[in-house]
């Protein structure tokens, strides 16, 4: 998903769940910060590197496809953007290595989603925002995995978009992909940017929905395609419907975090709270417009709901507060709450993956920078020994 839904849309969901304007801003900010809290950002502000919730393109370009590198990438993307749906799923084919990757496929309403929402209960608004980002992405990123894998994440030539004609009826149109990351998608011509095909199973180009381009993140997109893991059976993805489900589930989850419900259950949606807004929300979701237009529409809806002005997302908004706090006294700052919640979410997911017998995310090791450094040193030492053995 994009800023329009993660920031402004989450603000709207939080307001419908009973939070104040200020709390809604904080929750929406954290939901969007998940897409911006890279190691580069953390280095700039002096935050813990293990709190990274995303990776920049420049960081991904340096990622290695050895076991340590794959674990590092998987920890971030599976924990925050491609939450596994079923860690014990049976693909009915393939060996252990394939099963491990198949079980990392993202989808809504899995047990890890319940763990994610419950983890945020009684915690900060930052924790609530992180949980809402993860929840929303289970709908947008379903059928893809947050670990590099050609046999899971690749697509083939059969990829068609369902677009409305002049009468409003949906008609099929072949999707045309290109590999120019600096070019904007052309919605009118059905021309989208995707990642370059890499035959290496573990190449980072084969992470997540890179091979499907930006289509999974576009709220208006409806498309049919054949996933690499799907036994040549096509999948129909209806983003407007899925994004609406994500929104109503966020309202329900946020009401639980706010104390209105005593328990959280998967596959539960607060459609009643948004009944009068459904037409407006679906209009926003189905509009074939670029991100600026979607942001403006969601922002207008949020301001209509609360009666307050909603500022645009500013990555530097809380930077001074954190940087100027004396060393050892950063707790209580907005960013420190976010960092602590991010590390807790990552540790929880990695521990659940490891407990299932899946090695792709490694172990949490408490997720402090020192422990992560020791793990990498140990891996490099083992790798060097193995290479020496081979040379001998």
Can you walk me through this structure?
This protein is α+β, with helices and mostly antiparallel strands and 392 residues long. The protein folds into two domains: 3-145 and 240-387, no CATH class; 151-238, no CATH class. Helices cover 47% and strands 8% of the residues. It has 15 helices and six strands. The strands form two sheets. A four-stranded antiparallel beta sheet has the order 2-1-5-6. The protein has a two-stranded parallel sheet with strand order 3-4. The protein is globular. The N and C termini lie far apart (50 Å). Mean pLDDT is 92; it is low at 378-392.
**Count of DSSP-assigned helices:** 15
Q: What is the global morphology?
A: globular
Low-confidence stretches: 378-392
Number of domains: 2
Distance between the termini: 50 Å
H/E series, N to C?
A: HHHHHHHHHEEEEEEHHHHHH
Strand order of the largest sheet: 2-1-5-6
Helix percent reads 40-55%
Kindly provide the radius of gyration, computed on alpha-carbon positions and rounded to a whole number of angstroms. Answer: 21 Å
DSSP strand content: 5-15%
Instruction: Let me know the largest β-sheet.
Output: 4 strands, antiparallel
What is the typical, i.e. mean, pLDDT? Answer: 92
Number-wise, the strands total 6
Category by helix and strand content: alpha+beta
């Amino acid at each position: 998903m994009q800023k329009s839904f993660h920031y402004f849309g989450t603000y709207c969901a939080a307001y419908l769940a009973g939070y104040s304007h200020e709390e809604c801003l904080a929750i929406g900010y954290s939901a969007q910060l998940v897409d911006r809290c890279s190691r580069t950002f953390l280095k700039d502000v002096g935050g813990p590197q293990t709190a990274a919730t995303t990776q920049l393109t420049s960081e991904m370009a340096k990622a290695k496809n050895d076991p340590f590198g794959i674990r590092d990438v998987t920890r971030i993307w599976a924990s925050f953007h491609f939450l596994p749906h079923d860690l014990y799923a049976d693909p009915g084919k393939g060996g252990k290595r394939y099963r491990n990757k198949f079980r990392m496929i993202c989808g809504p309403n899995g047990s890890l989603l319940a763990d994610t929402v419950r983890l945020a209960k009684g915690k900060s608004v930052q924790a609530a925002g992180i949980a809402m980002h993860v929840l929303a992405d289970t709908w947008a990123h379903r059928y893809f995995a947050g670990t590099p894998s050609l046999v899971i994440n690749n697509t083939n030539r059969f990829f068609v978009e369902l677009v409305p004609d002049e009468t409003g009826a949906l008609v099929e149109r072949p999707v045309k992909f290109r590999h120019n990351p600096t070019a904007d998608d052309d919605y009118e011509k059905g021309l989208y940017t995707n990642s370059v095909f890499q035959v290496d199973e573990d190449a980072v180009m084969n992470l997540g929905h890179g091979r499907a381009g930006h289509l999974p993140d576009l709220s208006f997109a409806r498309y049919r395609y054949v996933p690499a893991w799907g036994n040549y059976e096509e999948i129909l993805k209806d983003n407007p419907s899925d994004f609406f489900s994500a929104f109503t589930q966020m309202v329900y989850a946020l009401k639980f975090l706010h104390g209105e419900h005593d328990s959280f259950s998967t596959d539960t949606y607060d459609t009643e709270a948004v009944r009068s807004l459904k037409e407006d929300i679906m209009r926003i979701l189905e509009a074939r417009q670029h991100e600026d237009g979607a942001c403006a529409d969601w922002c207008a809806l949020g301001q209509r709901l609360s009666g307050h002005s909603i500022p645009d997302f500013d990555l530097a908004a809380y930077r001074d507060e954190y940087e100027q706090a004396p060393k050892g006294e950063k707790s209580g700052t907005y960013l420190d709450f976010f960092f602590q919640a991010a590390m807790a979410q990552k540790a929880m997911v990695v521990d659940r993956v490891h407990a299932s017998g899946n090695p792709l995310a490694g172990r949490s090791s408490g997720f402090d920078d020192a422990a992560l450094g020791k793990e990498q040193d140990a891996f490099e030492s083992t790798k060097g020994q193995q290479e020496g053995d081979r040379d001998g």
